[in-house]
Each structure stands twice: as C-alpha cells, then as structure tokens.
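Morning!

This is the sequence you dropped in the shared folder:
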Amino acid sequence: MPIENYSDITDEQFDMLREIGNIGCGNATTALSKMLDRKITMKTPKVELVEVSKFVELIGGPENPIIGILLTMSGELNGMMMFAMSQASARRLANLVLMQNSSGAEFSHMDYSALKEIGNIIMGAYMSSLASLTGMSIRSSVPQVAYDMAGAILSVPAIEFGRMGDKALLIDSSFDQADSNVDGYFVMIPELDSYNKLMSRFGM
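The structure's back. Tokens below.
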C-alpha cells in the first residue's frame, strides 16, 4: 500500500530497506577496494529510521566540521543521495587515495577531487545494486563536495525529508583498511512517488 509520509513505513518495508542498504554498502566496499587496489572490509551497516532533528547529533553536533558528498538521482527513481563523514574520516580516505600522509584540517584541491571521485564510485555502486535489484533505470548527477559545519551541510537532506515526514533513513557504515578506518553515513532520499514505486517492485 502506498505511503504518504516516511513515518508510515511498515516493519516489512523497513526490513527491505535494511537489506537494500546491506547490499548497496557491500557493493560500495567492493568498488572502493578496486579503486584503491587493496583489501577493504566493512562492518555490518546499521540501518535506522531517525527523527530529522537528530541528523546533526548523530555526526557530532551542529558545529562539528564534516564532508558531505551529494548527488541527485533521476530516471525511474528520483531523489538525492548523500554520503557524510567526519573531517578525520575524510582526511584518512583522501590520504589513502592520494597515498599521502597529511594531517591537516583543511583540504586541498587534490583532496576534494579525490573525495568527489570516491563519492562518485561508492554511491554509483550503491545505485547500481539498487538498479539491479529492482530493474529500474537510475541516473545520477555529478557529485558535489562540501566541507562545512554539520548543521549547514545536513540542512539540505533535512529540509528534503522534512517535506515528507519527521523521520529519515540513515545507513551507518564503516570501511576498514589495515589501520585506517572511515566512518560515514549514507542518506538516501527518494521522492515519495519513487519510494512507492520502489516498494511495488518488491510486491509491497
């Protein structure tokens, strides 16, 4: 049955979203391993519905600096996806890609380029798995990277979710490579019509 608000998601639908999240993160891990040409492991992602107002608190509070990589989805599934991570995790990830050992709090043009490419690959892998599972045609925009306080960056998905309900779907993921750990959040925001179309593909 179609929902009119994300707060109306049933337990059965949430179980399906959790499974999609697990598969998507697994594919993203594989894609990241290939990009870096080294073994990357992933802890079982934690998928949860949380109140939009708790977005910021989950990633350290409104004044905590984070990196947000955002793209829009179009085609048979419309909406947006964001991968958000702390400054420390973003620094470790950029260092892995660029094979450097920087510890600076600021990011160079090369750092941003590396993070944008990473976002394109891991979110692209996530969407590819979603397209394979559903048979839906999904296109993505070029990802945009922003470095700002969490309150500013997460206001974008918070506003979008706020139009559809008071809860949001977050996928808490952790990638590990040797002694480097990267923690981040996937935030997927399909439009309600697209969400209902997605669920109908699974007979819900």
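Headline: The chain has one domain: 6-200.

More detail when I'm at my desk.
O.
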